[in-house]
Amino acid sequence: xxxxxxxxxxxxxxxxxxxxxELMERAAAAVAREVARFAMDRPILxxxxxxxxxxxxYVAARLLHARGHDVNLVATGTPQTxxxxxxxxxxxxxxxxxxAARPRPVLVDGLxxxxxxxxxxxxxxxxxxxxxxxADFTLxxxxxxxxxxxxxxxxxxxxxxxxxxxxxxxxPGHLLDCGGERCGTLLLADLDIPIDTRWRSVARPxxxxxxxxxxxxxxxxxxxxxxxxxxxxxxxARAAMAGGAGYVVLAxxxxxxxxxxxxxxxxxxxxxxxxxxxxWDRIDAVVLGPGLGRDRRxxxxxxxxxxxxxxxxxxxxxxxxxxxxxxxxxxTRPAPTWLTPHWGEFDRMFAGEGSxxxxxxxxxxxxxxxxxxxxxxxxxxxxxxxxxxxxxASPWLSTAGTGDVLAGLLAAQVxxxxxxxxxxxAAAWLHARAAQLAGPALIADALIMHIPQAVSECL
Length: 459
Fold this sequence. Notes:
Layout: H1 3-15, H2 20-39, E1 44-48, H3 52-66, E2 71-75, H4 82-90, E3 95-97, E4 106-110, H5 122-134, E5 137-141, E6 163-167, H6 172-175, H7 179-182, E7 185-189, E8 199-201, E9 221-225, H8 230-242, E10 247-252, E11 264-267, H9 271-278, E12 285-288, H10 296-307, E13 312-314, H11 317-322, H12 326-330, E14 337-339, H13 343-349, H14 356-367, E15 370-373, E16 377-381, E17 387-391, H15 402-417, H16 421-438, H17 444-449, H18 451-456
Parallel strand pairs: 1-2, 1-4, 2-3, 4-5, 5-6, 6-7, 8-17, 9-10, 9-12, 10-11, 12-13, 13-14, 14-15
Antiparallel strand pairs: 15-16, 16-17
């Protein structure tokens, strides 16, 4: 939830009869539980800011002190909210100023949580970073101080935070941009706050095992269109096979080298040939773009694929050919479409401002397509307003060909899982998990070999 959505959810709780102080005690109890679990009797230093995040810090300090922990508290100023002021009054332990604080093995960051929009003051940021550096363990309450709640932008958050305990719900800042790397391990305390949102983090999918009477056609036929760089299309085709598609056809006119014998070849030399091929009613999904090229032949292939009433996955060169005309083209499609752009391709196709979530949502609605906006923080959005976020995927995915693998995986999920955001979310999870299994210095070809193991974990 965004900061505004979280505030509205909390206000609904207050309107139901739960006092703000009670909710703050509930949140702080979750903080104290986690801090005690990780502290293992080491001395604790708690930083309390002037807002409600600081109020949580005061209560957590009181609860930890009552349990016998060695707790010092640093206050960065006078509480600015009534609840924080009341919680400060209940804290009877030692309190010092930030600039007089001495490092301790366990540090709790309660400076600024949800709603922060401006950079940390330079002196405060420097002292905070030094305390984090000298601590053995740091836990941030709700969000690391110095991360924008809605975008994950860096507002001065230090590196080295070990755990962030999200309160009520995850926020975009936990997964987007710098937030994904500054939060450390992310935990969630739901606090019994009713959450009404269509935004989720990507979860391990639940895939179906083929039935006793399944055959290749009922498991789905994927057509991958070859272009100027045939290796990219072959990667997509092999990924579709590994991802569970029942039948995969590679359509093109290039000589066939080494490859799986189970991959079917279809000769397609012109747009007319492609139109005829895509008229085959057995085809359940089409992949176009990996290695397609950007010449007139590629443009003709793109038009032929657009005209076919088949689910279509567009990647790579197909996205570049669409360019700023993407929305206009996509609005005319007679069948579902999925786009898999990285940030450069996305920026060429769609204008707009705001967070990665806001921009991807707006683009999906305008283009009437499901968009997998790739990156270290992958945002998936549907035209209906559904969002899935995946952060923390292997940085070793930053090599040529891994996006082609994702396109093929997505096609395999489309022919098995149907429309919308579900197959896109499943493909993103499988792609990230296969990368984990492949380990460091992976290449796209090796990534494919680990897809069956990732699939097996979802059955």
